[in-house]
Automatic annotation (TrEMBL):
Belongs to the phD/YefM antitoxin family. This is Prevent-host-death family protein. It comes from Thiothrix nivea (strain ATCC 35100 / DSM 5205 / JP2). It comes from the Bacteria. The lineage of its organism: Bacteria, Pseudomonadati, Pseudomonadota, Gammaproteobacteria, Thiotrichales. It holds the Pfam family UPF0175.
Length: 110
């Protein structure tokens, strides 16, 4: 999952099909007007229906590595344990280490 896409109001007029395609692929998009954020386009998916906008955004930001677990938990209005449970229920890994980093973390844990 990639970072939030940014479209201008002009892009919205000229590239609306691309914006819809991005949403269908699960991407959030910020629409700007005169360089300032004006709207947020959020994919209409199962997470949005089950958890609402704020928690869906927190899930997205963790999955796209734009927030830490602790930051996203605060953003979602949950304590860390509740947020980790939400990640699991949404099928998102709370810890996503490359294999070489995981081995190092496991060595330090033992």
């Amino acid at each position: 999952m990639q970072a939030v896409e940014v479209f201008s109001a002009r892009d919205l007029r000229n590239r609306s099909g691309e914006l819809i395609k991005h949403a269908e692929q699960g991407h959030m998009t910020v629409i700007t007007k005169h360089g300032k954020p004006s709207m947020l386009a959020i994919p209409f998916d199962e997470n949005l229906l089950r958890h609402g906008v704020q928690r869906t955004m927190a899930l997205y930001f963790v999955q796209s590595r734009q927030m830490t677990l602790a930051q996203a938990a605060r953003f979602a209005g949950l304590d860390l344990e509740e947020f980790i449970e939400l990640l699991g229920a949404s099928g998102i890994d709370a810890v996503d280490y490359p294999p070489e980093e995981l081995e190092g973390e496991l060595e330090h844990a033992l």
